[in-house]
Amino acid sequence: MRAAIFFALVFVMFVGAASALASEKTMIEKLDARTTALLDKKSDNQIKQFEAIRAAHGIMKAVENVQSSLMRAVKSCGEKNPEMKEALSARLGDWRLSVRPSLQQGKSRLEKMILLQDVAKPSEVRAYLKLFDDAIAERDKNITAIPVSDKAACQRMLKEMDKSEKELPELLIENLGLDQDLSIKPAT
Questions:
Q1: What is the pTM of this model?
Q2: Three-class HEC string of the chain
């Protein structure tokens, strides 16, 4: 159930990114062309390897995006509700500390996946992931963030950080397979 919720959140973020990027044809075209070139004449196993790499990268980027959004929201809430500023900052610090180890493990695992895959040279896969990041950054330039500042919303955010601080590391471990050995089958 938790995995389904987590993937639903990642899917919503990906769909939002894709729809926002649709207006940026050149970036989408570059990403699509690079995907096609990387996967051309690849085996099912190689395609699965690439999809696993792309999914792991996307999950971690989604969590980093949530972290950035929380940082902006905490700043906004603290400015509009000075009496909450200390509690919000402390809560955010604790939240980030709880998520950081799983993110670091995920990045380490992603790097191993990139090195072990046989789809393309590791540098080509990293360049693809950078292109993906650049497309997301381009999308974000066109989105105006309106951070939360209403006191009741700020209090809800505190409660949500309490909840997600416990759940998010577990979801990352589960969805990135951090509790399993990395196994990639050689291409046939």
A1: 0.80
A2: CHHHHHHHHHHHHHHHHHHHHCCCHHHHHHHHHHHHHHHCCCCHHHHHHHHHHHHHHHHHHHHHHHHHHHHHHHHHHHHHCHHHHHHHHHHHHHHHHHHHHHHHHHHHHHHHHHHHCCCCCHHHHHHHHHHHHHHHHHHHHCCCCCCCCCHHHHHHHHHHHHHHHHHHHHHHHHHHCCCCCCCCCCCC
